[in-house]
Specification:
- The structure is a homodimer of 409-residue chains.
- The first copy, chain A, is α+β, with helices and mostly antiparallel strands and 409 residues long.
- Chain A contains seven helices and 13 strands.
- In chain A, 45% of the residues are buried.
- Chain A binds chain B through residues 71, 73-77, 79, 90-97, 99, 115, 120, 161-162, 165-166, 168-169, 379, 382-383, 386-387, 389-390, 393-394, 397-398, 401, and chain B through 71, 73-77, 79, 90-97, 99, 120, 161-162, 165-166, 168-169, 379, 382-383, 386-387, 389-390, 393-394, 397-398, 401.
Chain lengths: 409, 409
């Protein structure tokens, strides 16, 4: 195949923002996405935030002729939101749910209730084995005081580990999705450093679209401009990353993003811009430097940085766990005291009631609610602490292995 | 290395039954396990049900000289219970939590509250890359009416998929653990058929221990004989499975189980028997037949069988989800009705109270409890349905790929 023309592959990636009853003009946009995928005939379309299975079925029905193979990843209460349409047979799929995904009490964001995960699809194209990963990491609601940063770092680490552990049999690795991280963020550096994945925007021979490849831009009428305040021109958080393995070399010929409105339409596909990469894959020399992780002092630094972030959150989570434990104990004590008082008055012992009956009932109700809530949070933070400890231990092992490798180089 | 003597490896596997405050003579037994591991100097010890991290730390302290490398897998509220002691460096670890693990309302069993998972360790021994998996699947409480069978089948399938997806870079794959399945059970056939793993008991050149390799035996003083009633001689549910990949051939030279009491002691190590395998690994010809899954009509049959089991549970789980949804709606309706009645009496409208105040309060409390419980169960069964649908879809894909392979053979 050395003299064969390279395999060209067009990959479409979009966070579709399709939440039933909440996302604006959802049905019209899903229709538009289906029409475009059908007309353009990409090789692969990686979609996120298709939360409703009905929307997926509508897309599937429309796209059967052009994309005979598709998969919808099921997870959590609401689902993963991922679906993939492919012109080539999907041989196998696998899903990995991230161990941490925000806090149950942050109801205004609701991330904890979604089954955030990474989906793997194994697809064979012209004899080449592609491992295609699709994911969506925890959102960033406030960059200055980002309460979700440690969880997002853990997700980036688990994503990197999952890709490294499951891609050994691949010829080409592709990752598409909304990573909710800027290109220079710690999580992206960790992911790219650990896996050796290349950024299609940085490597593209030709680029067309929003300035600096931004995928959240003020020109998009669905974007809440307040959220973009520190970055008035936009931010880049949606990616197509890739690498060649086992003597396959992958190159990004061109990268295109939509620019606020969908081509030839009056509204955008979503509140995110779509990313379309044209990749060429050819069999070449052993793909040096791109096949594994980029072992070097920078990688050691970023793993160290991530470990520090995880450690700081671990300390805070331990404090939260303990304070919830104390709160639950106090509420239980109060309930027991009230029960004892109730029993003593039932038994006819002449103890004067310190509170009127109504206040006493209210106090019991309050104590029960506090007990249940603080017990729930105690359990949540116990799990969080365990997961952070596990991640920190994994990172320690990784650092040791990296340092051994570096010293033997 | 073709002419080199084969690498000999002694692997110890035990479900330690070390639940604080519940397991009998736990501390003494943990001490015994530590002493034996230290005296015998195995190459690898795979332990399950070490639920307390303090017990792990005690073992670690005792074993540092003999096993300089160890790992404790953290997950869930209580933990995974897995730990591994190794004479050789552990390069990396990874944990996958099973998506289904029993029912929250089966409080008497409590499986749902443990973070059942499979742990992967990458260990390099004399230049050979070992992928070592340790796991513990959902227990079987009643063989005739096994409510957990579908979840155990899903776990066996996820275990098989996890091993297949993460072992491509391995030279040798080892799996040790309490699989809670008899050798001929569907889950074991699925796991072995899909991964090509070999059973050290069936393949051992020499065997010594309990009849038929049983690991739950009536001679063990901790065994509840009632649980063994249909199998008075014992059952085999703890396994060491293996396969060689990439031109490595693995053979089981000998398999030993303990026989009720620990050698030279008056009590057993645990309520399970320990399994000790001596494996020899040598570089050979491409290990035909043992490197991948055993593609054949039997594998198609067992995947079909598993799919049928999953489909049956899917139907039942859908019914349970719907009935819990209806119950939650009814409770909500009752609460709204009572609230309306309360409001109307507050507003002074002259509606006669159908119930005395105390009964009305009790009814509200009952309705609230029913609403919360049925909402919780609705969410649980919704997740269960999604996971079963996902597994069924994966099995459908797998069957298609198998049939394609079979027809091209």
């Amino acid at each position: 195949m050395d003299t064969d023309p390279p395999l060209q592959l067009r990959v479409f990636d979009l966070n579709c923002w399709a939440i039933r009853y909440l996302s604006k003009v959802r049905q019209e946009r899903i229709g538009m996405i289906g029409d475009t995928l059908s007309q353009e005939g990409f090789d692969l379309a990686l979609l996120q935030e298709v939360w409703s299975e009905r929307d997926y079925c509508e897309l599937k029905q429309k796209l059967t002729a052009c994309y005979p193979y598709s998969h919808y990843f099921k997870s959590g209460v609401i689902g993963s939101g991922f679906c993939v349409f492919s012109r080539y047979p999907i041989l196998d799929t696998f899903l990995y749910q991230y161990s941490l995904n925000g806090y149950p009490y942050m109801l205004q964001h609701g991330d904890w209730f979604c089954g955030k995960a990474v989906g793997l699809l194994i697809i064979k194209i012209c004899g080449i084995i592609f491992h295609v990963y699709v994911t969506h990491l925890l959102a960033e609601y406030c960059r200055d005081k980002d309460a979700y940063l440690p969880h997002r770092v853990v997700q980036a680490w688990e994503l990197a580990q999952f890709i490294q552990h499951t891609s050994k049999g691949a010829d080409v690795v592709l990752l598409g999705g909304d990573l909710n991280m800027h290109p220079g963020d710690m999580g992206i550096r960790l992911l790219r450093g650990w896996t050796g994945l290349r950024d299609s925007f940085a490597d593209a021979d030709r680029f067309e679209g929003c300035e600096d490849g931004y995928t959240l831009v003020p020109a998009n009428c669905f974007t809440v401009n307040k959220e973009l305040q520190p970055f008035p021109l936009g931010i880049r958080i949606d990616y197509i990353l890739y690498k060649g393995l086992s003597r396959f070399v992958v190159k990004c010929d061109s990268l295109v993003t939509t620019t606020g409105t969908a081509p030839g339409k009056s509204i955008p596909y979503s509140d995110h811009e779509a990313v379309i990469a044209t990749l060429s894959v050819r069999r070449g020399e052993e793909a040096k430097g791109s096949s594994g992780s980029n072992v070097g002092p920078e990688l050691v630094d970023v793993v160290n940085e991530a470990q520090t972030e995880v450690r700081a959150r671990l300390h805070a989570a331990e404090c939260q766990r303990d304070s919830n434990g104390r709160m639950a104990s106090l509420a239980l004590l109060l309930l027991l005291l009230q029960a004892a008082m109730g029993l003593s008055s039932l038994a006819g012992w002449d103890t004067p009631q310190p509170f009127p009956k109504f206040s006493s009932s209210l106090l019991s109700l309050l104590a029960t609610v506090v007990l249940l809530l603080s017990m729930g949070l105690y359990i949540f933070h116990t799990i969080e602490v365990r997961m952070l400890q596990g991640t920190e231990e994994q990172m320690r092992l990784a650092l040791q292995a990296l340092q051994d490798k570096l010293s033997s180089m």
